[in-house]
Amino acid sequence: MLTKRIIPCLDVKDGRVVKGVQFRNHRDMGDILEHAQRYAEEGADELVFYDITASSDGRVVDKEWIRKVAKVIDIPFCVAGGIRNIEDARKILNDGADKISVNSPALERPDFVTELAEAFGTQCVVVGIDSLYEKGNYIVHQYTGDEKKTIKTSRDTMEWAKRVQDLGAGEIVLNCMNQDGVKKGYDIDQLQAIKKAITIPVIASGGAGKEEDFQDVFEMTGVDGALAASVFHTRQIHIADLKHYLSKSNIQIRL
Amino acid sequence: MIAVIDSCGSNITSVLFALQRLGAEATLTADPEVIRKAERVILPGVGAAGTAMDRLREQNLPQCIVSLTQPVLGICVGMQLLFSYSEEGEANLLDIIPGNISHFTPEKDKTIPHMGWNSITIRKTHPLVNDLPQDSYFYFVHSYFPPVSDYTIGACSYGGDTFSAIVARDNFMGCQFHPERSSKTGAHILRNFLEMPA
Known about the structure:
The complex is a heterodimer of chains A (255) and B (198).
Chain A: E1 5-13, E2 16-21, E3 24-31, H1 32-42, E4 47-51, H2 54-57, H3 64-72, E5 77-80, H4 86-94, E6 99-102, H5 104-108, H6 111-120, E7 125-134, E8 137-142, E9 151-156, H7 157-167, E10 171-176, H8 188-197, E11 202-205, H9 211-221, E12 225-228, H10 230-233, H11 239-248
Parallel strand pairs in A: 1-4, 1-12, 4-5, 5-6, 6-7, 7-10, 10-11, 11-12
Antiparallel strand pairs in A: 1-2, 2-3, 7-8, 8-9
Chain B: E1 2-5, H1 12-21, E2 26-29, H2 32-37, E3 40-43, H3 49-58, H4 62-66, E4 72-75, H5 77-80, E5 85-86, E6 91-92, E7 100-103, E8 114-119, E9 121-122, E10 137-142, E11 144-145, E12 152-158, E13 161-169, E14 172-175, H6 183-195
Parallel strand pairs in B: 1-2, 1-3, 3-4, 4-14, 5-7
Antiparallel strand pairs in B: 5-6, 7-11, 8-10, 9-12, 12-13, 13-14
């Protein structure tokens, strides 16, 4: 059986791992390589690195660390942040990343998703969606790396998810902004809605606070993976313990 | 020396690093002379089989590859290239192992691509799977799959589709998953490949 993926996300700023609450007040969490290696050893199924400053600053993710990560870890990893053209993406993939994730640049120019899929295959192309629930609607937000630059788009989240699937995305990471950093559990309603809307894999992001939150999101929404950051960085949840807990709850997990 | 065929696939760096971690000396090359003389050959690949096949043709490599007598390991799309034909882009392939590559059957609650960790059932003994525990997990990313046949060493199921995860015919072997990204089990497969008699 295909297993559900547990994916630690490392928010990267200036070559360090950081974490903020609802995208604010970024706190230094330590060295990238140390985190990456520890997670791979603890049984993480995949890693995501987000350069949270890149998109809103208009600069590309600093790639020095990508080769170093690729050298030491033996699980797949995805790099996100300010990838604006085919050449940016090619460099990151050539440096050893398995996937690239685009968010704001895809909103600026949706055809970019198709260009990436044609150049590298859909399996490499992840689209990140930052979605905020407001007055009964799920609305896509842009440039969320910097609070001052964050804008609300006119796009409905489910419509955008379907669109990027058609454009050639191989996977979607749905970051539910109302839940991000507050540790009250994943946004079950929204994740159920997106799973119904599309057939490519969906990774849940935003809200994990305890082991039961992972169980709920897998059992209630059928998402393919669950992403979390601070609960893993702070060791509030240990990945190996989490995976044993989920396996005992009859969720398909790689132990 | 291990020749890693430069098929312009983007998983090449990961493959080279994985070999490095195992202490193997590997060269990235598209030179038929270098490939012929190598002790072992790895054919990586991601993306569409038809596109990968076109690249091999542009570099005049198909003839060279089919005539190799040393151990050859195809990875992911590199494995699919060993088969006869792919539905993806309706492409003729190297035709070393009989069989056609097909698209996954759409089913309810089945996400495509097949992306993530899945377990394989070993169906035959082979040096490539020496000491590998039954139902070991490997990392897969693909939308098309090779058939189960007499050449299947390990099989994997996804929804109602069962496919070859590991194949072998004579000196040609292939795995649909990414051993370079499959943690300890992936390293186990690569080590077996490096240690089998050349």
